[in-house]
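Thread: quick sanity check before group meeting

JM: Hey all, I'm pulling together slides for Thursday and realized we never actually wrote out the predicted structure for the chain we discussed last week. Dropping the sequence here so it's in one place. If anyone has concerns about the input, flag it before I start.
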Amino acid sequence: MTLRKLNKSAWLGRAVTAAIAFCAALAVPNLASAELKLCNSTASRIGVAIGYKDKDGWVSEGWWNVDSQSCALLIQDKLRARFYYVYAFDYDKGGEWGGSINMCTNDVEFTIKGIDNCDGRGFKKSGFFEVDTQEQTDWTVKLTDQSEPAPAPADSASNQTQAPSQAAAATAPATRRR
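JM (edit): ok, ran it. Output follows.
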């Protein structure tokens, strides 16, 4: 009988220790959640590319295909720069979310070093819009349809909402290979 009580006591001690460790883990902030995320609040599937400056210079990367009403993790790490750049296009309706910052893109998945002479290096030149992360460690960009009113960000220090421009230069999704 004593042996059985000892085993129950040992088991109970381990269970209490595990419960305390679990509760302590819940109380500690999640340090691994730093990220750059893009949420697609449109009714269409979109393609997304990002640009940023790393220690070796400018880099552009793509494509993330983001379904309607979903989000994609673009960078899963502490954001190391204040400014990132985004270019996106609507596969279903045409149009794009862009800006005046020219960077290189490609029709298929890419990571391109440098932003000069895109055409001469066999790439396309696309206009990206600037995202000011306000030096936060993580940030969410929300893209909306132009016809939808842009919702007020839940936390203005961590969200940016953009509506697409239905530019004439946007190529119909069926002719783009992404």
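AS: nice. The chain is about 15% helix and 40% strand. Helices lie at 2-27.
JM: adding both to the slides.
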